[in-house]
UniProtKB/TrEMBL annotation:
Transmembrane segments: none
Family label: Belongs to the peptidase M20A family.
Record-given protein name: Peptidase M20 domain-containing protein 2
Any one Gene Ontology molecular-function term assigned to this protein's record: dipeptidase activity
Span of domain Peptidase M20 dimerisation: 179-274
UniProt cross-references to InterPro entries, sorted A to Z: Amidohydrolase, Bact_exopeptidase_dim_dom, Peptidase_M20, Peptidase_M20/M20A_hydrolases, Peptidase_M20_dimer, Xaa-Arg_dipeptidase
Source domain of life: Eukaryota
NCBIfam families: amidohydrolases
Gene source species: Penicillium brasilianum
C-alpha cells in the first residue's frame, strides 16, 4: 500500500507508539507470568484471572466465563456512546508437556498492547467507539474460538485482529488450512475368541476396516487436503473379541468448501465399516478450525504502518502476493471462525526462534526480550489499523465492503446482507477436549 494511504497523523502515530512503550515493563511482567505458569486447553484459570483482573483494574467492563467457556472473558472499554467496535483476541493456553512452545503469552501481550494504545487515544481525544479484548482459551486442539463463535462471540464487530509469533518470518497474512477432528467409537459384542466367536461382533475389525478404507481414500485427495488418524483402543486380550474400539482422526483442506467436500467422502467410511462387521459407531465431530479469511484492506494497512512508521524494512514484511507464495501454512488456527463473522487479520511476526512452533527452541524464544519487543510492535500496528476502523468512515466502509464480497462469494451472506453463520453440527455425546497439541 502506498505511503499516502496512511490515515493517522504523525502525532497520533507517536501517541500510539508512546502509549505502548510506556506499558512495556508491565506487559512484560504479564507475559512472563503466563509463560511461567503454563495451563493447557480449557483450564487456563490463572491466565484468565490475571488478564481480566488487570483490565478491570484499568476501568474496563469485564465479563468472565463467556460464550460457553469458563476460562474465556470479554473486556470492553468506551467513553463516548456510538461509533464502531474493534476487537483484539488474547490467547494464553499452553501445550501439554511443552509449556508455551507456541508463544501464546506473546499473543496476549500484543493484544494488550493494542488495547492500551487505543484506551489512551479514546481517553485523550474522546472518540466514540468501543474496544474489546476477547480472552480466547483452548486454541491448541480445542477449537476454543469455534465454540465461542457458535455461542455468539464477535457478532456485530467491525474488525477483529490479533498476531502470532513465528520462527523467522513476518507476514500481514495468516494462510492456514481448514480442519475438523473426529473421534470414532465402535461398539460390538464381546465373546470368547476360541469357544464361541460366532456370537461376537468385533469392534477391532470395524476400526481396522475404517482405517484401511481411509488409507485407500488418500490417493484420491486433492492437493492440499490430508487425513491423519490413529487407533486409540482396539481390545485388551487376544482371546476376547473386542466389544469396543476408538480412533481419533483429523481432516484438513485449503478451505471450508473443500473441507465439506472431503467430509462427505470421509464420514460414510465409518458407517460402512460398522455395517460390514455388525457393529455400531458413534461419531463426535469436535474442534472445527475454519480457514482464516484475511481482510486484505486491513492487511495492506498493517504492512503500510509497519514499513512507513514502525521501522520494518520491506524485505522483512513481504507483499501480500509474495506472502501467499512463501508463507502458506500447513497448520490451522481457530481464528478462522472469527474471520467468518467479522473482518479481521492474524498477522505474524518473527521471534528469531531456533526451531519451529511446538518445540523447546520456540518456547525459549517466546520468553525472550526480542520476541517481547516484536510483539509490542505488532500490537502498535494493530492498534493503528483498528483506530483507522474506528474513526475513518471511508476506510471502515472499504473493510466492510471487502468482507461482504468475500462472504457472498463463499455463500455465507444472504440477499439481505445479513451474515449467515456456519451450521452448528450436532455433536453426539459430550464434548471432551483433546489433550494433544497437534494444531497451531
Amino acid at each position: 500500500m502506498a505511503e499516502h494511504m496512511t490515515l493517522q497523523s504523525v502525532d497520533m502515530i507517536e501517541e500510539v507508539v508512546s502509549a505502548v512503550d510506556a506499558a512495556s515493563d508491565e506487559l512484560r511482567r504479564l507475559s512472563l507470568e503466563i509463560f511461567n505458569n503454563p495451563e493447557t486447553i480449557f483450564v487456563e484459570f490463572k491466565a484468565c484471572e490475571l488478564l481480566s483482573n488487570w483490565l478491570e483494574n484499568r476501568g474496563w467492563k469485564v465479563s468472565r466465563g463467556v460464550y460457553g467457556l469458563k476460562t474465556a472473558f470479554e473486556a470492553r472499554f468506551s467513553l463516548v456512546e456510538g461509533g464502531r467496535t474493534v476487537c483484539f483476541n488474547a490467547e494464553y493456553d499452553a501445550l501439554p508437556g511443552l509449556g508455551h512452545a507456541c508463544g501464546h503469552n506473546l499473543i496476549a501481550t500484543s493484544s494488550l498492547a493494542s488495547a492500551v494504545a487505543l484506551e489512551h487515544v479514546l481517553k485523550t481525544h474522546r472518540f466514540p467507539g468501543t474496544i474489546v479484548v476477547m480472552g480466547t482459551p483452548g486454541e491448541e486442539s480445542g477449537g476454543g474460538k469455534w465454540i465461542m463463535a457458535t455461542n455468539g462471540a464477535w457478532k456485530g464487530f467491525d474488525a477483529c485482529v490479533m498476531t502470532h509469533g513465528m520462527r523467522n518470518f513476518s507476514t500481514p497474512l495468516c494462510l492456514t488450512k481448514a480442519s475438523w477432528k473426529l473421534r470414532a467409537r465402535f461398539h460390538g459384542q464381546s465373546a470368547h475368541a476360541a469357544t464361541a466367536p460366532w456370537t461376537g461382533l468385533n469392534a477391532c475389525d470395524a476400526i481396522v476396516h475404517a482405517y484401511t478404507a481411509i488409507s485407500m481414500l488418500r490417493q484420491h485427495l486433492e492437493k492440499g487436503s490430508t487425513i491423519q488418524g490413529c487407533i486409540l483402543e482396539a481390545g485388551k486380550a487376544s482371546n476376547i473379541i473386542p466389544d469396543y474400539a476408538e480412533g481419533l482422526f483429523s481432516i484438513r483442506a485449503p478451505t471450508m468448501q473443500k473441507l465439506d467436500e472431503l467430509k462427505s467422502r470421509f464420514e460414510p467410511i465409518f458407517g460402512a465399516a460398522a455395517a460390514a462387521t455388525g457393529c455400531s459407531v458413534e461419531l463426535d465431530w469436535t474442534a472445527l478450525y475454519e480457514d482464516v479469511v484475511s481482510n486484505e484492506t486491513l492487511a495492506e494497512q498493517y504492512r503500510n504502518y509497519m514499513i512507513q512508521h514502525l521501522g520494518i524494512e520491506p524485505e522483512q514484511l513481504l507483499t501480500l502476493e509474495e506472502s501467499r507464495m512463501l508463507h502458506d501454512q500447513p497448520g490451522c488456527s481457530d481464528f478462522g471462525s472469527c474471520s467468518y463473522i467479522c473482518p479481521g487479520i492474524q498477522a505474524m511476526f518473527s521471534i528469531n526462534a531456533t526451531d519451529f512452533p511446538h518445540s523447546i527452541g520456540f518456547r525459549e524464544a517466546s520468553a525472550g526480550e526480542f520476541a517481547h519487543q516484536e510483539a509490542l510492535k505488532a500490537g502498535q500496528a494493530n492498534a493503528l489499523i483498528s483506530l483507522d476502523v474506528l474513526i475513518n468512515h471511508d476506510f471502515a466502509d472499504k473493510v466492510k465492503a471487502e468482507f461482504i464480497a468475500v462472504m457472498k462469494k463463499g455463500g455465507r451472506w444472504n440477499r439481505h446482507l445479513v451474515f449467515i453463520p456456519r451450521e452448528i453440527y450436532p455433536v453426539q455425546g459430550s464434548f471432551r477436549p483433546m489433550s494433544a497439541g497437534i494444531v497451531s
